[in-house]
From TrEMBL:
<dbReference type="GO" id="GO:0032259">
    <property type="term" value="P:methylation"/>
</dbReference>
<feature type="binding site">
    <location>
        <position position="307"/>
    </location>
    <ligand>
        <name>S-adenosyl-L-methionine</name>
    </ligand>
</feature>
<dbReference type="InterPro" id="IPR002792">
    <property type="entry name" value="TRAM_dom"/>
</dbReference>
<feature type="binding site">
    <location>
        <position position="357"/>
    </location>
    <ligand>
        <name>S-adenosyl-L-methionine</name>
    </ligand>
</feature>
<protein>
    <submittedName>
        <fullName>23S rRNA (Uracil(1939)-C(5))-methyltransferase RlmD</fullName>
        <ecNumber>2.1.1.190</ecNumber>
    </submittedName>
</protein>
<keyword id="KW-0489">Methyltransferase</keyword>
<keyword id="KW-0949">S-adenosyl-L-methionine</keyword>
<feature type="binding site">
    <location>
        <position position="406"/>
    </location>
    <ligand>
        <name>S-adenosyl-L-methionine</name>
    </ligand>
</feature>
<feature type="active site">
    <location>
        <position position="433"/>
    </location>
</feature>
<dbReference type="InterPro" id="IPR030390">
    <property type="entry name" value="MeTrfase_TrmA_AS"/>
</dbReference>
<keyword id="KW-0808">Transferase</keyword>
<dbReference type="GO" id="GO:0008168">
    <property type="term" value="F:methyltransferase activity"/>
</dbReference>
<dbReference type="InterPro" id="IPR010280">
    <property type="entry name" value="U5_MeTrfase_fam"/>
</dbReference>
<dbReference type="Pfam" id="PF01938">
    <property type="entry name" value="TRAM"/>
</dbReference>
<comment type="similarity">
    <text>Belongs to the class I-like SAM-binding methyltransferase superfamily. RNA M5U methyltransferase family.</text>
</comment>
<feature type="domain" description="TRAM">
    <location>
        <begin position="1"/>
        <end position="61"/>
    </location>
</feature>
<dbReference type="InterPro" id="IPR029063">
    <property type="entry name" value="SAM-dependent_MTases_sf"/>
</dbReference>
Amino acid sequence: MNKKKKPLLQQVAVEDYAAEGKALSKIDGKVIFIEGAVPGDVVDVQLSKSKKEWGEGKAIHFHSFSPDRVTPFCEHFGVCGGCKWQMLPYEKQLQYKQNEVVQNLKRIGKVQLPPIQPIIGCTETARYRNKLEFTFSNRRYLLPNEIAAAKEAPIDQENALGFHVPRLFDKVIDINTCHLMAEPVNAVKNTIRNYAKEHNLTFYDIRFHHGWLRTLIVRVATTGEVMVNVCFGYDDEKERVRLFDHLLKQVPGITTLLYTINPKKNDTIYDLEPKAYFGKGYIIETLSVTPGGEKLKFKIGPKSFFQTNTRQGERLYQVTRELACLTGQETVYDLYCGTGSIGLFVSDKAKKIIGVETVQEAISDAWENAALNNIEHAKFFAGDVIDVCTSEFFQEHGKPDVIITDPPRAGMHEKLVRKILETSAPLVVYVSCNPATQARDLNLLDEKYEVTHVQPVDMFPHTHHIENVVQLKLR
């Protein structure tokens, strides 16, 4: 039976950007969301979905290119799904992100808004990440030209170290140079891959769950410290020692080298125990509380959460601190606090910090970071925020003067929104990595709170992701 042929739209003029980095156009009143295009392009679109009022598809042929396009700086652009906006000037990226925040808050939030502040962009638009995770695979993704060449002569289709291909769970792109992170990330990655190939070490097979080398996680701090964690499917001490000794000799900048044995079917390491082969097993990162001012220290282990863009995370926290309007007399609740970084960042201006986070390991890190910085008036509690933050909890630890909330992409649970309304804290600062769910929550909070300040912050250049900080005051 022949599959139904997908509709093709020809000569589509791309007009604008929508959410999640998709371009859009309107044809006879129907909105078409387009992957892989830039406003100003004229393209043919192969539709994957076609509803009455909207459709979705991919640009498969370009009749003309937008004058806004620039040449991508990465050789893997268009295949790797990491930096989808490299073909846009950074100024344009910021413009579209600003528009997305405005549209989400207006259309979904439907609340009275103050003038929205101009987005704070990144000073560094490449090599800005402090953490990357690469995957070993015995199923290398072949580019179209490689597939054509394979018809003429045999080609190595095995063993890659890089990133998963979007929508293909078992294929990995072999990455030569990634521009997302400062060196020695590429030196580490390429040294391990080359050694593994030369010595016939097995790369993991995600389909059948066998093989030795699984994942590689690299962290680089602004202090110059470098952490490398290699995850293996099983332990082989003899080969591991040979590999690690070779790596340390070739890349002397590594300050701590760990390994994690992972016999599970998934790649998560949060229920596993990384072990140090070399170094102290963690790195130290610092954040400036004010520009050029006092620095806080943070101990980052192999399982710690930390803002992925250190310098822009610092700016995000400075904005949050400014909007909290602290005088030194306030009890501050830091909800979804992670390793306590926001709470500790504002602690010198608060009377008391109470942090709540689901992940026990993050709370352990929060206590440790508080001790590292001699902060004694911060307390941290593990558990689901909606279970921990009861009326009794607020009564025990003090009525909140300021609530800082930094939920995951799904936003706040409605029960927590109701609890915030019930507490009637004078001021709330809502830090969000998803302005759409933030807007939904603002609509609920509108019952008692007015939005008094909106500040978008770009954390991830060349992607559609955006952070937004909103200040709300009790009516």
